Amino acid sequence: MTSPAKDGVALSVLDVVKSYGPIRALDGVSISVKRGEFVALLGPNGAGKSTLFQLLTGLFVPDSGLIEVDGYDIRKTAVPALGSLGVVFQSPTLDPELSLRANLRFHTDMHGIPASIAKVRIEEELKVFGLSERAKDPVRTLSGGNRRRVELARALLHDPSILLMDEATVGLDPRSRHEMVDMVFDLRDQRGIAVLWATHLVEEVERADRVIVLHRGKVLKEGTPAQIIDGTGTQNLSDAFLKLTRETGGHQAAA
Ligand code: ADP
To answer: Where are the alpha helices (DSSP H) in the chain?
Structure first.
């Protein structure tokens, strides 16, 4: 099926609102990610990152606003919209007792990928991520870094247009964290996949094409790292982020 995406936009979020009782977790958020773009969603705890990812992955629906993945409205055309997303969640979602291969196979079955194609895709991705030798091993025997690699491989099996990384380095040691960041930049360079990388760690996103600073449910600022720093009176992204998020007031109450 030809995607209805306009102007190479892989993800479009328009004026999205989501409240939990009196807390407005997302208060009119609009963002977009183009094909091949690495966009960082940078926000401290409680900014609304997880809430946005839950809406993007169809777990919850927004109170109002529009979300399109690859041009497909996630509410009206959920199947192609969700089929265009590759997701690595914050919490581990692999079955520890199943082998790497079986975990990946479970995913291709869920996406309705025919067995003969799935077999080839799985072996290809295992090779890309240096995991072919471990294919038969139960996931529980892998290091934390390798488990994340399997999750990344799995997210790519159905050839999505955008990769959503939801605080995907949580729990990893600094070295594995760097490897994960490098791997995703390489994937973007080699495959032209769009990336939305949510984190509260500035050091992970200094190389991003664009940074979107989310705080207390609102987009505070967006632009290249240099544009984020500009006008804050600071010299680096880390200080700029601290300054921007310190200067902002509390959550808006839900209407
Ligand atoms: P982040 O992922 O950036 O840390 P969240 O999306 O988890 O932010 O949270 C945004 C706001 O919504 C916070 O104030 C949080 O306490 C609140 N929140 C998140 N999930 C729930 C929930 N299930 N019920 C009530 N409040 C929630």
So the answer is: 49-56, 78-83, 100-110, 115-128, 144-156, 174-191, 225-229, 237-246
Choice from 23, 45, 213 to test ligand 1 binding pocket (greatest atom count within 8 A of CB): 23
How many whole angstroms from 143 Cα to the centroid of ligand 1? 29
Pocket (CB within 6 angstroms of ligand 1): 20, 23, 25, 43, 45-51
Give the residue-averaged pLDDT of 75-89: 93
Q: In the chain, where are the structural domains located?
A: 1-84+160-255, 93-158
Task: Note if the pTM is more than 0.85.
Answer: yes
What is the CATH T-level fold of the domain 1-84+160-255, as seen in this structure?
Answer: Rossmann fold (3.40.50)
- pLDDT-derived band of residue 255, with 50, 70 and 90 as boundaries? very low
